What we know:
A: mainly beta, globular, B: seven-stranded mixed β-sheet
Amino acid sequence: xxxxxxxxxxxxxxxxxxxxxxxxxxxxxxxxxxxxxxxxxxxxxxxxxxxxxxxxxxxxxxxxxxxxxxxxxxxxxxxxxxxxxxxxxxxxxxxxxxxxxxxxxxxxxxxxxx
Amino acid sequence: xxxxxxxxxxxxxxxxxxxxxxxxxxxxxxxxxxxxxxxxxxxxxxxxxxxxxxxxxxxxxxxxxxxxxxxxxxxxxxxxxxxxxxxxxxxxxxxxxxxxxxxxxxxxxxxxxx
Lengths: 114, 114
């Protein structure tokens, strides 16, 4: 079965730096990969989706890359701010299932210090 | 638009008791999902539905039942609660079933089984 690993449970960086979060997967390559943000006590909120034929996707200070050879996605937050502190989840689809089911990683908690 | 609404938000049960979690969405989404989230485990899919009147098992369905009698509602039932079902439960919905549609999550229902 598909396995997803996100780098270290916690990541601490200084305000203004670029945060880089990693999502590695095994077995099959998904057609889509999504990133979500989750604040304490809240439900996950969708951030970005990248397709297997896309190398990179950007949205404001966020950038996602997708390397199907390495079976890895990188999630970057540039010019990070304390308000970016949250847990970030990557999620993969199940190809050809047509059910919209996603498999989630365990998440990386980002702490941005002022 | 309220989005995805879960009730109740908190509940404490004794072992063996039963209860139902209600999820309601006002976005006219076809697909709905129930996930549970436990520390270090990430989100795991319990059951899902691809349309009114349909349900299917996810990754961890044992001990749970679901019903989708109306398109906007997805109910998760625990017939005989066990301490292992202590968790945070999230309902989600989406418009598409191919994995390229974002999931909209509720705020979660925190269940403790004593």
